[in-house]
Design a protein that fits this description.
InterPro entries: KR_dom, NAD(P)-bd_dom_sf, Sc_DH/Rdtase_CS, SDR_fam. This protein has eight helices and seven strands. The protein is an alpha/beta fold. The chain has one domain (3-249): Rossmann fold. The protein has a seven-stranded parallel β-sheet, sandwiched between helices. It is globular and about 50 Å long. The structure holds NADPH dihydro-nicotinamide-adenine-dinucleotide phosphate.
Amino acid sequence: MSLSLFDLTGRVALITGSSQGIGYALAGGLGRAGARVILNGRDASKLAQAVDSLSAEGLNVTGSVFDVTDPDAIEAAVARIEQEVGPVDILINNAGKQHRAPAEEFPDEAWRDIFRTNVDSAFFAARSVGRRMIERRRGKIINIGSVQSELGRPTIVPYTATKGAVKMMTRGLAAEWAKHNIQVNAIGPGYFDTPLNAALVNNPEFSAWLCGRTPAGRWGKLEELIGAAIFLSSSASDFVNGHMLMVDGGLTASV
Ligand code: NDP
């Protein structure tokens, strides 16, 4: 297999929620593989800082501030990106949020907000970009799922439900759009040190549980997600569709 199969030179990639954490790591990874990357977030100054630091590495990146829970804002942003940068070849639906509380006390608005951010947003963005990919007869969509679609864990019931929805939305879109030469896949990260996990990272009891439960015996490193994203963004995955690639040190493979 030629390594050029993984080359993303000239491809335009839009990564939602990429001003920090996993999205930011993937933006750097795809940028280093040659892609022109559009980073996104709601906080304009945080996004500008992220763009500046990747630009300083010589990567071809720009920022687009919009809220992924607003379908009109997504549509406007995609139209603007396509006009100013070029057709979006790769969409990574990464923006997501977490709220921890016992199920019996879980606030209504937090439940709705998690679904809007983790599920609605991914569908709205896939719909906006997918419509254009159908016309061009090619495209790659990657949804960031989670090991939580495979595990039941306390205090995160809504989050777990959203990641189950993301997994099945991935399969449904793949089945529907395969005929248009669009591949829709997902990545299922294990546990990574990002602001989303701030409460867990400094909790020694949790860390001990995680490292004991994970065959690799440790947390993931953000750069370890990049290979999966490049594979699923590139021609190397042209016959891979509806799959969720777990990057979790074996966590979901073990009992
Ligand atoms: P972070 O909380 O560190 O980063 C979230 C990013 O999303 C930020 O850039 C934030 O920017 C952006 N964002 C949040 N809401 C919106 C919105 N409504 N519109 C636009 N941007 C938004 O999260 P992680 O990097 O940890 O997680 C990224 C994805 O990976 C999520 O889908 C998460 O569920 C998933 N995941 C994470 C794991 C982990 O271990 N960290 C494990 C498994 C899955 P801003 O503040 O400007 O809105």
